[in-house]
Amino acid sequence: MFLQERTSKRTEIRLISDSKETQIGKSYPGVSAHRCVPIMNESSSPEVCYPPMPYENSRRLLVVCYSIVFALGLPANCFTTWLTFIQIRGKNVLAIYIFGLSLCELMYLSTLPLWAIYVQNQHRWEMGSMACKLTGYIFFCNIYISILLLCCISIDRYVAVVYALESKGARHQRTAIFITFILFSAVLVIHCPVFILQDGEQTSNRTTCFETLPLNLQLAYFNFARFLIGFAIPCIILIFTNYRIFQSTEISNSLGERQKAKVKYLAMAVITIFLICFAPYHLVLLIRSINFLLHQKDSCSFEHHIYSTSAAFLCLSTANSVADPIIYVLASEHARKDFYRSLTRWRYPSSTNTSLKLKNSKESQEAAQTSENLNLTTLSKEQ
Fold first, then answer.
1. Phi, psi (rounded to 5 degrees) for 38
2. Which UniProt keywords are given for this protein, alphabetically ordered (predicted)?
């Protein structure tokens, strides 16, 4: 009698489950005969989409991308940090911003193995809510610290090129350090609410880490702010400053063709890398938020369609950790000279290379100062 009752209950549960699957399933082309619908939690608010996102479609791409960026970005940014530190000792103002940028990238690169494990595990976060929130916090801060530091670099170069005479003697390392400190502090404080958001909490229905699907009103409005303040305004600044640098270099008669090409290509590279790495990611954020506001009751279908594209654009934003050192340091002639000088110092015993160190330090300072002021001052004289 007891076995018959248990068997009856199991049959009933299975019939109910099959009935629910039949109701969910009718007509969603290409998604295993299931229609994407939000599953409601106890407070009747959508918590997750069903069926889940096509994680498998982007799993290999994300894991490979994270692995390559980590393998290339870690040594490249360590190398960048070392070279920019040498340039900072040589009184190079621009090196302050590049040094902060490389530290920011190293902070983010340290979390990439966790993201790779998370993706490989079918987007199930099993390292605790606090680890999820801290990792997400670093991800958000890295994006916007990087963007704002790129703006600082472009503005500094714009002032040095377009207003060379006016800015001579007015650009100091203390000012650059203060700006970098304020920028880091502001971004870190603004993103502190990440630690109280529900996106980092794992529940019985949600095991993801900062992948809230469908969106909610809070995240939709937050995405609008991220797009406007964190991308659109910096993008305008970058385009304007680098265009003016390009323009001032073009009309110069005192610079050689090689010097002109170096300045122009670097200005173009800044804009190109910025647009490739950050524009697609932020455009997807904007599109998803607009779609959610227009179709709050049925946004899961759209999220399902756009998920793989969003994952590919996330890879582009991650690639910025490799692109920044290549653009700003490895392409610098004086950075390479400082690197060779530092290797030369290590080859000599400490008892016999004191004069060599003093000489190299003086040459490094003069080279850094000449790099920033000599050719740029000639531009302003012509104007």
1. -80, 135
2. Cell membrane, Disulfide bond, G-protein coupled receptor, Glycoprotein, Membrane, Receptor, Transducer, Transmembrane, Transmembrane helix
Domain boundaries, given as residue ranges, for the chain: 54-209+218-382
pLDDT digits (tens, 9 = 90+) for 107-140: 999 999 999 999 999 888 888 888 889 999 999 9
* Architecture in CATH for domain 54-209+218-382: Up-down Bundle (1.20)
Give the three-class secondary structure for 383: coil
Residue 241: per-residue pLDDT? 92
Tell me the average pLDDT of the chain: 76
92 φ/ψ sector (left φ>0, alpha ψ -120 to 50, else beta)? beta
Overall pTM > 0.90: no
What pLDDT digit, counting tens, does each position of 141-179 carry? 999 999 999 899 889 888 887 887 777 777 888 999 999
Taking residues 328-336, report their average pLDDT.
Answer: 58
Bridge partners, 49 (sequence order): 38
Whether omega before 51 lies within 30 degrees of 0, making that bond cis, reads yes
Report which of residues 274 and 165 the model is more confident about: 274
Cβ atoms of 87 and 342 closer than 8 Å: no
| CB 89 within 8 Å of CB 361 | yes
Measure the CA–CA gap between 324 and 61, rounded to whole angstroms: 22
Would you tell me how many other CB atoms lie within 10 Å of the CB of residue 335? 24
**Residue spans of beta strands (DSSP E) within 278-340:** none
What's phi and psi for 348, nearest 5 deg? Answer: -100, 145
| Angular region, 43: left φ>0, alpha ψ -120 to 50, beta rest | alpha
d(CA 138, CA 331): 28
